[in-house]
Design goal:
The complex is a heterodimer of chains A (306) and B (289). Chain A is built from 13 helices and no strands. Chain A has 306 residues and is mainly alpha-helical. By secondary structure, chain B is mainly α. Chain B contains twelve helices and no strands. Classes of the chains: A mainly alpha (306), B mainly alpha (289). At the A-B interface, helix 1, helix 6, helix 7, helix 10 and helix 11 of A face helix 5, helix 6, helix 9, helix 10 and helix 11 of B.
Amino acid sequence: MAIYVVRRILSSVPILLLAVTAVFFAFQVIPGDPARLYVGSDASEEAVEQARRDLGLDRPVGVQYLSYLARLARADLGRSISTRRPVSVELGSRFVNTVKLSLASIVLAAAGGIALGTIAAVNQGTVWDHAATLLALLGISIPVFWLGLLLMYLLSVQWQLLPSAGNDTWLHYFMPTVSLATFSLAFIARMTRSSLLEVIRQDYVRTARAKGVPDSMVVLGHALRNALLPVTIVVGLRFGYMLGGAVVTEEVFAWPGLGRLLVTAVGQRDIPVIQGVLLVFAASFVLVNMAVDLVYGFLDPQIHYR
Amino acid sequence: MRALVGFWRLHRLGALGGALVVLFFVTGLAAPVLMPRDPNQINVQAALQPPGRAHVLGTDNLGRDLASRIVYGARVSLYISVTAVAFGLIAGTGLGTVAGYYPRFDTPIMRLVDMMLAFPGIIVALTIISILGRGVENLIVAIGVVQIPQFARLAHGLTLAAKDRAYVEAAVAAGAPDRRIIVGHILPNCLAPLIVQVSLLIPAAITTAASLSFLGLGVPPPTAEWGAMLQNSLQWARLAPHVMVIPGLALMLVVFGFNVLGDGLRDAMDPRLRTAGSSRAASGSTPPG
């Protein structure tokens, strides 16, 4: 087991390194002069040359890459072109906000999705099943930003129940959480339903029923415990996607998170900030994936480690 | 024809999705015939009119006819999503097949694919747009690249499975060149799952394109694009909610259509899921609200 854990942790290192490399070289091919971008379009030729030397852009690409790695190792992500503040400072508080929103959303999505999927599977073929299935289909079809806009229109503009922008109070969490959670909730519901339907046909469930175990106990105690194994993986993966995919939701509700920072940075072509956000996304996604694999290893007694 | 009737019997909802998808394709392809009115024709006197006799779906803040803009928007979405998915299908299937067929290419290609899958699609697309700049062509490239790893992973798995089958071993034993084995024997047998994948990735491409346009990083104004229309509706929704409701509804109906069609196709092609599929298809008797 310990060997499996160590091996799993080590196996994410090359992926991370590859991501760092991709993030570095992707912006080498960018049209335009990064030194000119840094000092602004009306700066003098000398200032551009000065910036080129300061930023190390006059050195060969290979050397730049190695020094980029060395700076990363010291958590130095460079400075933002637009605010001139260190990128790591810009990222810090934004990351916390994105994690808070994603955590709230994944809890809602997991609880709601498992409940909806269970209702559908237990009542297979009835009106309840059809309603839940249709609801899940609508949930994976509705565009996140449109759902956000509708919520905002109804709850903030028409009925003035909730604040529409920012993250100051817990009331601010409601609409962004619902928007971000809906797709995952529907996805998890579909997954739970099909997984549960498969498990319900298994021999041990029939045995439990034959023993006279009450229906609710069969579902909760026997079927759901096993059906939720694959769902756990999906919940973990969806959480990883939420951390990066909250871009649109954050933009709609002016949520001061990483996604919003990225959109602004892309608009301003603030390359150090773009690179920093991308690295944080990659690192968190790889970490979440690793955690999912490890948790799954503990949960599923059928997995043997070699 | 009989196959179509059979599909309708088993998968009502899937057939409904198919109808929506056909409607989307026809609308997009025939936009100039269906809507002779110019989608960019400005008429400030008729601004923000609710749906009515003169304008079936009303007008936006510049008095542009929303029905025309929705129909031409379908054309833009269709063009972007189909070309982007075709790009991803060709590049991804190529990479995945090569990785699956030649062991020495397997690790390098598939590690790259894993790395790309470590980023949510919209982030990859945003990055590419930040490098290439805005515009419809760059948007297509960005969304196409997002699809590559999805197709590559599927094609990789299918190729690995096909390699062990007798018909491929027979072709190898007969001395057929690699290219003929891949193109003539392996790819045709990957076709069905790839088609299902296309039906699932087109709506993803449509949503991503609309999201990027909504963020102001996709199709530039004044082109009639559903996401860009929603961005524009932000300031006017208070006065005229229909400018916000209608483009979103169009977007959702198309994505919904593709999703249920994809479900239906997957069930139809995988008999193991048929029981679950028929119960899901039965829910088609209640039309979606």
